[in-house]
Write a structure and sequence with these properties.
Layout lengths: L1 H4 L2 E3 L2 E4 L2 E3 L6 H4 E2 L2 E2 L1 H7 L4 E3 L6 E3 L3 H10 L6 E3 L5 E3 L17
Antiparallel strand pairs: 1-2, 2-3, 4-5, 6-7, 8-9
Length: 108
């Protein structure tokens, strides 16, 4: 789960880096079952958007409005990694603190 959404279940709750969100007491089964975390329930609890395909095989988890607003105010582009023509990956964060020229193109 940590690799997918960045959160880890710990005794103090769901944690990402130094931030921990305690799970509501008495509602354990809404969030935990058979050692697995109901990520959609946790996302609802923390007011983050999520969506899934009708078949349940594709899921998308987003940031909450406050996190998005903070990111926009920081004027820092979100990190991403793309391969060059030789297949070598390059991350935007590798160039943090330097000027970067990004070009995008779409056929539509």
């Amino acid at each position: 789960m940590t690799a997918v959404v960045g959160w880890t279940l710990k005794p103090e709750g769901m944690c990402r880096d130094a931030v921990c969100v305690p799970l509501p007491r008495g509602r354990d089964t809404a969030y935990l079952r058979d050692g697995l975390v109901n990520v959609a329930a946790f996302w609802r609890y923390t007011e983050r958007p999520w969506a899934r395909s009708a078949a349940g095989d594709v899921w998308a988890f987003g940031a909450n409005a406050r996190e998005r607003a903070d990111a926009l105010l920081s004027l820092q582009a979100p990190d991403f990694t793309l391969p060059d023509l030789a297949g070598n990956p390059h991350a935007l964060s590798d160039h943090r603190g330097r000027k970067v020229f990004l070009v995008t193109w779409a056929s539509w």
